[in-house]
Amino acid sequence: MSDAERILVTGGAGFIGSHLVDRLLAAGARVTVLDNFSTGRDANLAGAAGHDRLSIVRGSVLDAELVDRLVADSSTTYHLAAAVGVRHIVADPLASMLTNVRGTENALASAHRHKVRMLIASTSEVYGRSDQVPFREDGERVLGPTWVHRWSYSTGKAMDEHLAFAYADMGLRVSVVRYFNSYGPRIDESGYGSVIARFAGQALRGEPLTVHGDGAQTRCFTFVSDTVHGTMLAATRDAAVGTVVNIGGQHEVSILTLAEMVRTTLNPRAEIQMVPYESYYPKGFEDTRRRVPDVTRARAVLGFEATVTFEDGLRQTLDWCRRNYAGKPVMH
Ligand code: UDP
After folding, report:
1. Whether the CB of 287 sits within 6 Å of ligand 1
2. Do 182 and 224 form a contact (C-beta atoms < 8 A)?
């Protein structure tokens, strides 16, 4: 990567965004972060702060003029800013939808206007509760009814993808990535709200680890260095222009198994408690039973493969949680 590269990362203070910023700086880029610090945190950028090739702008992707100015000044824009975490979405569906659709529209319109290469971060939530596992990019999307707020996240992100492809038809060089349960150091119980962060926090406080439902639901947890690597390939490969690519590992883990692994590592005396979904999410919540990426396209288009094993990634993550969670207030 040449020094001339000017990269804008919206959501650059977030969990995935901050790791992306670290990697871009290490590769020699000039990086501007746009973040409203809703779930993004200063601490995520603590290592990068003060770097002479980094600028941090506190602002919203809903501020179209600001977005336009920053996008115009970049050679590539990575658009990661979004209302994230299913629990946050169901708690504030309207604000989440506006951020996720209008914010992306602002970024895409500017990138098109100024002919800037663009990467849009989407999500495996887009597949909804499809049972065509593993999920292929061209597979069906199966969503529940519109009054179940969970599905508004999937719908909003799918709208982002539709917008991206509409702009691609008009000549925008844009790629879309769908993330699968990224995790690693900096996961946050109250921000992005991953189950791994929650179990780690519970185990460290000596609380029971709360497994929802029967715990047989599965996810393919993807270590954040792999997530970032796939994202950078998608933003730079010509073959990825105008396409959407799954970014995830294929190692499927049940939530109950995850709870057992976290307990064993952090606090063997902690209990595992099976609790109903209603104890955490609003009534009527619907979960995705299995979420597994088909990685054929990621291999073919990006030459991408997740390489960090779950054992190794989880160990690094839980080590970080042990060092960083002690005494921190959390959202219940
Ligand atoms: N989950 C759980 N206990 C918790 C938090 C989450 O059993 O305290 C479950 C959740 O119901 C889902 C899975 O863990 O089945 C993954 O949840 P997460 O919020 O990490 O991500 P999602 O895959 O739902 O986007």
Report:
1. yes
2. yes
Q: Which single residue is written with the structure tokens 């100024």?
A: 114
Count CA atoms closer than 13 A to 217's CA, side-chain side.
Answer: 14
Give 121's DSSP letter.
E
Please name the helix (run of DSSP H) or strand (run of DSSP E) that holds residue 175, with its range, or none: strand 174-179
CATH code reported for the domain at 6-180+223-248+291-306: 3.40.50.720
Phi, psi of 281 (to 5 degrees): -105, 160
Amino acid residing at 256: L
Length of the chain in residues, anyone?
A: 332
Q: What is the pLDDT of residues 68-105, one digit of tens each?
A: 999 999 999 999 999 987 778 888 999 999 999 999 99
Q: Is the CB of 286 under 6 A from ligand 1?
A: no
Q: Which residue, by CA, sits nearest to atom 10 of ligand 1? A: 212
For the stretch 123-176, pLDDT in tens is: 999 999 999 999 999 999 999 999 988 899 999 999 999 999 999 999 999 999
